[in-house]
Design goal:
The complex is a heterodimer of chains A (328) and B (478).
Chain A lengths: L1 H16 L11 E8 L5 H9 L1 H4 L2 E8 L2 H9 L5 E5 H9 L4 E10 L4 E5 L14 E4 L4 H12 L8 E4 L2 H9 L5 E4 L3 H9 L3 E4 L7 E8 H6 L1 H20 L1 H12 L3 H8 L8 E2 H16 L18 H6 L4 E2 L3
Parallel strand pairs in A: 1-2, 1-3, 6-7, 6-8, 11-12
Antiparallel strand pairs in A: 3-10, 4-10, 5-8, 5-9
Chain B lengths: L2 H60 L2 H24 L3 H32 L5 H81 L14 H57 L7 H32 L5 E4 H11 L1 H4 L4 E5 L4 E4 L1 H18 L6 E8 L6 E8 L31 H11 L4 E5 L5 E8 L6
Parallel strand pairs in B: 2-4
Antiparallel strand pairs in B: 1-3, 4-5, 5-7, 6-7
Helix pairs in contact in B: 1-2, 1-4, 2-3, 3-4, 4-5, 5-6, 7-9, 9-10
The chains are: A alpha/beta (328), B alpha+beta (478).
């Protein structure tokens, strides 16, 4: 009986060891990912640093941008395959008739965007913003938050002096006094808070806005490359698990990628929810912002698009079905 | 190792193993029960969030006070459930989810309070639609993520319940298998040892019982069965010693009997001789009494001579060498009848003789058996007309002996004296009733015993008697 068992084991081992002749590994697929140098893209930085994209057979070429709208513009111009961007620029692009897909949400936060103001310019409560110069980046979540903040505090746009600035201009503008306040997000926000110290006052409002940051691409690219999308998502999901399991190490990786101090990253880490998913809240946010854009005449369209058509669920459903919570 | 020690050890081992297995099973049941409790709690949380969502919508759409009160009550319930969940869930993943849920609860409460404030403000005309919309979007967003967190918790608990259930089933199966295997192994091992030893002891005992008193049971080990074998060996030693002593005593007795008989014959011959001579003398000078005395002396001497002859013959029967051969019982009967011609002459005898088998034994001795038995049958049936003598033998199926029977229709005997029948010089009737010294059946018994057989008799007074003897169906005789 023992002999028979040993013989069987040997045979099984020999059979198992017999591999088919090694196949030529395909070279990794090159894709260009336009991403913003923001804490919102932490999962992208982790995936790149840990080689998760490479594991999935992707050669992800990063294209650096200072904010998401810029990254999306690169995709729309055909200079990149995918972009990381908040939902606000996506909403504007859709209303302009662009054919794009959101394939996944990679982070969200209701404490990322704020209005930061200079106390020494007489601003200590939201009402003090009346008549002040407020920097904002048009067509972004910063602009939406600013108007929502105004609405929550009984301010209308014409009561203030909004000045359009790029995010990378915000810090210098507020520090040098070119503006009295800025509606912006991290990292400019945390840098301003550090620089202004007690001279600054930050107005958060968790009740009026939750920013989502998403992976977007042209619909044609997604339709032609469904496997590529799945592989990218798998890489990001691995990064999600790593971030949950080893937050300290993840913060170091992201801080290194953003060339900031780890302590800064640690300070804002818990303001973000780093998960790869697609939920009904994305639709709600897009529709909310569409109503805002239409009512503020920021766009010409008056009909609400069906944003379901601009969300690609199939790839994420294939790799992580439990994270797809959009009602279809 | 002693069998009792082995059994004790086995019992203790079984007890220890059973205790360990029971403890493991109890632990597994405990974890399963806890997992079920956690699962139930997660279900309650999900259900409460769902109910609160409906109440939220009711309030947002209709602004009804009842919905607000119920929403508040459900929020308190949810807070309580989340706190209870902190007590139940100790794993990092689950506690991280609970931390998020708590944060979202706090945010939700804050936003709902602002919504209520807006609704109340709008009643007085200060409606801020934009703010209401923002707050509504946020509360929907928070409810969605809270629900997602609760679902994640629920999925986690269901996985744990499933795992705990499978583990419990697997453990139970393992325990049952282990119990069965150890019980079977134990039985097999103990039985093997017992059977092996018992087989050796039984074979040895059989060899000794068959007559080989030199055989000793050899049993390896140090348990009770080995001790039993030793005891049997000791017993055999004693039996062998007694047998030797008995044989020696018998031989001495035989020699003594022979010697006495032989030595007594010489003086008896003198007595008989001189009585005969005296009888030939002129006895007219002797009175009647003296002549009577003379006759009594003569008869007594004659009787003594017969007794001595019979004793001698009986003694010789015990000392004579036996010849072992195949013997035809039918032929023996015929020879016995021929030898008893003078006793049979003139008598009306009906013989019923069945077909008799062949046996192993000494032909001369066995012939003497039939001579004695037939002679007795004729003697004790002489008043019958006709005399019926039946001779038969049987070899029953699977029996290792042949049983022969000689029966008659004579005077029979009282069964209470059956034990005396085969004794030396034992008689149930007086010499005046029936002649003889009472040595015939003693000789029959002695001969049959030397052949390894048995003798017995049955009778009814005045209604005949049957005399049985058995002979082993084998070549070797004791």
């Amino acid at each position: 009986m023992l002999k028979f068992g040993l013989t069987l084991m040997c045979v099984a081992t020999l059979v198992g060891c017999q591999k088919s002749p090694p196949q030529m590994k395909k070279p990794p697929q090159k894709i260009t990912l336009a991403h913003a140098t923001l804490a919102h893209c932490a999962l992208v930085y982790i995936a790149m640093a840990k080689g998760y994209f490479t594991e999935e057979g992707l050669d992800v070429q990063p294209q650096i941008h200072t904010y998401g709208k810029s990254a999306l513009d690169s995709v729309l111009a055909g200079k990149a395959d995918l972009a990381t961007v908040a939902e606000t620029p996506v909403m504007f692009a859709v209303l302009k008739g662009e054919k794009i897909f959101i394939v996944a949400n990679i982070s969200n936060s209701n404490k990322d965007v704020a209005v930061i103001a200079r106390r020494d310019n007489g601003i200590s409560v939201p009402g003090d913003l009346m008549g002040k110069r407020i920097g904002y980046t048009p067509g972004t979540s910063g602009e939406f938050f600013m108007d929502s903040f105004f609405a929550a505090n009984g301010i209308v746009r014409k009561d203030v002096n909004p000045i359009g600035l790029k995010p990378e201009e915000m810090v210098d503008a507020l520090v040098t006094g070119k503006i009295d306040a800025a509606a912006t997000w991290n990292l400019p926000l945390i840098l301003l808070r550090k620089k202004l110290g007690d001279k600054g006052v930050t107005f958060f409002d968790k009740g009026i806005y939750t920013e989502t940051f998403n992976i977007t691409a042209q619909q044609e690219f997604v339709q032609k490359n469904p496997e590529t999308i799945k592989r990218l998502l798998r890489g990001l999901i691995k990064a999600e698990k790593f971030a949950a399991a080893s937050p300290d190490e993840a913060q170091i990786l992201v801080a290194t990628a953003l060339t900031i101090d780890k302590s800064l990253m640690a300070e804002i880490w818990n303001d973000f929810d780093y998960r790869v998913n697609l939920s009904q809240t994305l639709l709600i946010a897009l529709e909310d912002e569409t109503r805002w854009a239409m009512s503020n005449h920021l766009v010409d369209q008056t009909k609400m698009p069906n944003y379901i058509s601009y969300i690609h669920v199939e790839s994420l459903k294939a790799v992580k079905p439990e994270s797809v919570r959009i009602i279809r | 190792m002693l069998i009792t020690t082995r059994l004790k050890l086995s019992s203790y081992l079984s007890l220890i193993m059973s205790s360990i297995m029971i403890m493991v099973l109890l632990w597994s049941f405990g974890t399963y029960k806890q997992a079920v409790r956690q699962d139930f709690l997660a279900d309650e949380i999900v259900s409460t969030i769902f109910e609160r969502t409906i109440l939220r919508d009711e309030y947002l759409i209709y602004g009804v006070e009842r919905a607000k009160i119920q929403w508040t009550s459900k929020t308190e319930t949810l807070n309580r459930l989340i706190n209870a969940a902190y007590e139940q869930f100790k794993g990092k993943a689950e506690r991280d989810i609970l931390d998020e849920m708590r944060q979202r609860q706090d945010d939700t409460n804050g936003i709902f309070a602002r919504i209520v404030k807006q609704k109340e403000a709008s009643l007085s005309g200060a409606k801020n639609i934009v703010l209401e919309q923002r707050l509504t979007s946020q509360i929907i967003f928070l409810a969605s993520t809270l629900y997602a967190d609760a679902m994640q918790l629920q999925e986690s608990t269901k996985r744990v319940v499933d795992l705990a259930y499978k583990r419990t089933v697997a453990l139970s199966s393992i325990i049952v298998m282990v119990v069965v295997i150890t019980t079977v192994l134990n039985s097999v091992l103990v039985n093997r040892i017992l059977n092996k030893r018992l087989a050796v002891i039984q074979a040895g005992a059989n060899t000794i019982a068959d007559g080989n008193l030199d055989h000793r049971i050899v049993c390896q080990g140090s348990d009770e069965l080995v001790a039993l074998a030793e005891t049997l060996n000791n017993m055999t030693d004693k039996v062998q010693l007694f047998m030797r002593q008995l044989e020696t005593a018998n031989k001495e007795l035989e020699a003594f009997s022979y010697s006495i008989s032989h030595d007594l014959r010489a003086p008896l011959r003198h007595i008989n001789g001189f009585i005969e001579l005296l009888g030939k003398q002129d006895t007219s000078s002797l009175n009647d009494k003296s002549q009577h005395y003379l006759r009594v002396i003569a008869e007594s001497a004659k009787k003594m001579g017969t007794l001595i002859d019979d004793l001698l013959s009986f003694s010789r029967m015990g000392r004579a060498e036996m010849m072992q051969t195949s013997v035809s019982m039918s032929k023996l009967v015929v020879e016995a009848q021929n030898e008893l011609q003078s006793d049979l002459a003139g008598k009306n005898i009906i013989w019923e003789t069945d077909s008799l088998p062949e046996v192993y034994g000494d032909p001369a001795m066995l012939r003497q058996v039939f001579v004695n038995l037939i002679s007795n049958a004729v003697k004790f049936s002489r008043d019958r007309d006709p005399i019926k003598i039946k001779i038969s033998c049987s070899q029953a199926n699977k029996s290792d002996e042949t049983i022969c029977r000689v029966s008659d229709n004579g005077v029979g005997f009282d069964m209470k004296y059956v034990d005396k029948l085969f004794g030396l010089f034992q008689r149930l009737h007086s010499p005046e009733e029936f002649e003889g010294t009472g040595v015939g059946l003693a000789n029959v018994r002695r001969i049959i015993h030397r052949h390894g057989g048995r003798t017995w008799a049955e009778g009814i007074e005045d209604d005949g008697a049957s005399f049985y003897f058995s002979l082993p169906n084998r070549k070797e005789q004791i």
